[in-house]
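Q: Hi! Curious about what Glycerophosphodiester phosphodiesterase looks like structurally. Here's the sequence.
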Amino acid sequence: MTLIIGHRGAAGTYPENTMLSFQGAHQAGANGIELDVQMTKDGELVVIHDETVDRTTNGSGYVKDLTLKQLSHLDACYTFKQYSKKTPIPTLEEVLNWASQLQDSFVVNIEFKNGIIQYPHLEQKTIELIHKYNMQKSVIISSFNHYSLVTCKQIDAEIETAILYMEGLYKPWDYAKTVGAKGLHPHYYAVNSFILNEARLNSLDVRPFTVNDEEVMKNLVNDGCAAFITDFPEKAVNINKEE
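A: Let's find out. The predicted structure is below.
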């Protein structure tokens, strides 16, 4: 069975990385969500993709230069006028608290956005929250910063990690093992049947991003891909049922 993971929730339909979007993905039948984590000036973990708030809110400035209180006043639905002023930037704790109460086995893929800004103790703080809500078996931590994934494994050897990458990484199943990762999260251009088969033989799950084309979805389902990440989980869930 191919799992459907909502990219930033259901980012094609709702304001990305908001509780509206995460709830929308769950209601659409997604098996999980993917989200992005940055850190505020006062060391709080918040769910937002960019290093700045400019694109997705009605504010401006770097997340690292703003306190949680300052961020809480911003409208995270700014680009979706029909949802305007209905939800703020969520904290990671808020999302984990919500996800921990769901009845089904709901996956939360936490992507660290620490490739540009090195947030201090990001890994430790995140893993502490994961344990607080007993989400160890439901969370996957991914990052383009693979040093950060190694740090996660040093803190908690059982936490599942996945390498993010964009292009043709040679034998990614071998490389992933060097950083202790059990998942491959490539751009979908970097996935083919050979990669999927070799990863499967090496007990690694492949979860490509961001898959919005219906034909690509169908091919991944038919090839037995472990999961894929999409802006349109409702569409993907329907295709999954049909194939």
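A: A fun detail: The radius of gyration is 17 Å.
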